[in-house]
Specification:
alpha/beta, about 25% strand, Rossmann fold, 5-stranded mixed β-sheet, 5 helices, about 140 residues
């Protein structure tokens, strides 16, 4: 049974179809996405993956293309807020670039089927990076 697509503007549909025809995305492309306000939304304190985003993610994963999460969030925040939901959509460990590139790894499940972060690399943040984050917090 074919899934129904959300209503898209015909111009958007044409642009997507042209991109798929003329690029190598379906064979070797991937998606790197920001999270807050892009792939995940917040409503009255609840963080969730909107249905159109879930639809798109499922289509990307079904085609075997990777999706990398890029966020200022730290891995535990990703796991606690929407990690379980995203992992269910992905069906595989989720590559994560965390805290402005200071941590790289995967959100997955451990032997007890609990969410975990498998770190593959970590880099200390430069003082200017820490100051820019703190400036945002102060504001």
């Amino acid at each position: 049974m074919e899934r129904q697509r959300p209503d898209l503007n015909p111009e958007v549909t044409a642009a997507i179809e042209q991109f798929v025809r003329e690029s190598d995305f379906s064979a070797s492309g991937g998606v790197i996405t920001d999270l807050d306000g892009t792939a995940v939304h917040e409503d009255q304190g609840r963080i969730y993956i909107p249905p159109p985003v879930e639809f798109g993610l499922k289509a990307i994963y079904e085609r075997g293309r990777p999706v990398v999460l890029n966020s200022l969030r730290f891995p535990l925040s990703v796991m606690r807020t929407f990690g379980k939901e995203w992992l269910a959509i992905a069906g595989a460990p989720i590559p994560v670039i965390s805290m402005n590139g200071s941590q790289l790894g995967y959100v997955s499940t451990d032997d007890k089927q609990e969410l975990c972060f498998e770190e593959i690399a970590a880099f200390p943040l430069a003082a200017r990076d820490i100051d820019s984050v703190l400036t945002g917090v102060d504001a």
